[in-house]
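Entry 14. Structure prediction run on the chain below.
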Amino acid sequence: MKSQRSLVVATFLTVAGLAAFGPGTARAQDVIKFGVSTPLSGPAAPWGIPHKNATELIFDEINAQGGLDVGGKKYKLEVVAYDHKYVIAEGVATVNRLIAKDGVKYISILGGAVVKANEEAVNEGRVDQAKSSESQARRDDLAQRRYRMVVDQSGDDVHPEAGL
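Output returned:
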């Protein structure tokens, strides 16, 4: 349960990052593609399937509300997911496909060894990555820096502030 919560938090932070930092290279039809490389089969599937489903659920809710607003323009969010079976070679192949063929600019990879094996490809592809394998403390630190709560001078109003 804690693992699923971490995945939802990582996905939410990525969506918030999309809103804060822009759509990357959105297509003419105003779609932002978000890649998911996760184990959908094999022994790690109990983690990978909720990872994919949580991402799709959040994006479906955003799309049902008209899409993600970035600078006054609405973008539909599309999930492109591949099964890496928690095999490093498959993980590298799926991430390369997401970046080179599918043209995603945002990606979530599940599995510490698979994440590590893809660091170079993700960095070279200039892709933003939601790292579900990061420690909870690290994710909390990133969330605090990016979206800390600020109380106005009257003390009555609390609102998010982009921290990066």
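The domain at 2-133 is CATH 3.40.50.2300 (Rossmann fold).
Filed with the rest of this week's runs.
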